[in-house]
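This part of the workshop introduces the protein records we will be handling. Getting from the letters to the C-alpha cells is the skill we practise here. An example says more than a description, so a record of this kind follows:
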Amino acid sequence: MLAGLSLAILLSQLGTNIINVALPTLVKDLGADFGSIQWVVVSYLLVVTALIVGVGRFGDQLGKKRLYLWGLAIFMAASVFCALSTSLPQLIAGRAGQGLGGAILMALSFAFVGEVFPKHRTGFAMGVLSTMVSLGIALGPSLGSLALAAFGWQAVFWLNLPFGLLAFLLVGRYLPDAIDAPKPPVQKAGFDWLGTIFLAATLGAYALAMTFSGKLGFGAPLVLQLGLGAGVGLALFLAVQVKARTPLLRLAMFGNALLSTSMAMSVLVYAVMMATLVLGPFFLSKALGLDTRMVGLVMTVGPLAAAIMGVPAGAIADRIGARLVMVVGLALFTIGAFAMSRVSLDGGVATYIVAILFISIGLALFQTPNNTAVMADARPEQRGLVSGLLALARNLGLITGASLMGALFASAASGMATATVATANAELVTNGMRFTFRIATMMAAAAFLLSLTTLRIRRGRG
C-alpha cells in the first residue's frame, strides 16, 4: 500500500519538472516562441493550484480511494495524450489534464496516512512520502534528459505509464475499501465550485499577463487588461470565500502572523526555485552548449542536494530551533540567487553549479523547518487546512516562477522579445539569465527579511 502511494506521489512530482529539460527541444521541434512554451509548465501548475485545496473535500463526498484511482487514471490518460500530441495546443491541453490527476494525487496521498496506517507507523509513512516528493524533484531532470536523448520528447510522457499502472494496481489491491465507507450526513460538506472557478480564472489571467508581458512588454494594453482581470477575479474570489458555507480558504486563518509570513516567504522562494528549473536548461544548452544528457546531469545536482539535506535540516531544526534554521537557509538561498545573477560564458558550468548548490541547500534548510514551525504553531483541528494553505502558497510560487520569471527572461535582452529563444545567441541568453536572477536575488532577500520577523512572533499567536 505504501509502495503504491509512494509511486503515485512520485508521478505527481515528476509531472511538475520532468518536462523542463525538454523545453529547448520543444521550442525547436514545435516552432513556438518561449512565451508559448512556458504554458507546457504553467498549464500543469495552474490546474494543480486551482484544485489542490478543494479536492480533499470532494474526496470526502465521492470516496477518497475511488477519487484517487480516478486521479491515477486521468494522469496516465493525459500522459498518453501528451505523448501523441502533434501541436503545442494539444500538448498544453494534455498537461492541463495531467494537472487534474496530479492535484488529486498530491492532495490525497498524505491524507491517507492518518486514516490507514496505525499510529505508531504514521511518522514513518509520512517520512517515506516526503522523501518521494524530494526524489521526484531530483529525478525529473535526469530521467527527462535520458528519455529525451534516447527517444525524443514524447518519451518523457510514455515514461509515466509503467509507474502509473503499477501504482494503480497496488493502490487498488491494498488500500482498504473501507476508507470509502459512507460518512454520517453531519460530516459531509459541500464543494466550493464557484470559489474554484474564480480561483482558476484569476490564476489563468495572472499567468497569461505574465506570459504576454515577455512578448509585448509589461505596459502593453493586453497585459494591463489581463492584470486588471486577475485583480477583479481575486476580489470576486475573496468575496465568495466570505459568503461560502464551505469555502476553499478560511480567510480568518490569515490572522495568524506566522502562517501569513510563511506563505509569503514560500511564494517568493518557490518562484526563484522554479526559475532555476525553467531557465536552467536554456542557459546550459544554448549558452554553454551542453548536450541533452549533460544538461540533465547538471540540472539534477540542485534537487539532489535538497533531497539529501532534507532529513539533516529537520534534525538541526529540532536541535537549535526551526525558525533560526529557516533564517540561515534563506541567507544561503539569497547568496545562491546572487551567484546565479553572475553566471557568464567564461565562468561556465562551475559557476552555475556553485550557485545552484547554495540555492538548493538553502531551500532544504528553509523548507523543512518552515513546515515544522507552522504546523507546530497550528491547533490540531486546523492542521489539515494549514497544510493545504502551505501547498497553495508553494504552487503560487511555482506559477510565478514559470510565468513572471520566464517573461523577465524573454524580455531582458534586446532582440529576445521579438525573436524566438531558438534564434537567440549565447550572449543574449546569458544576459537574460543574469537580469532575471538579479530580480530573483531581490525576491530572495525579501524572503530573508521576512524570516527575521518570524523570530519575534510568539508561538500560538493569531
Summary: The chain has 17 helices and no strands. Residues 273 and 447 are 13 Å apart (CA to CA). The radius of gyration is 21 Å. The first helix runs from residue 2 to 17.
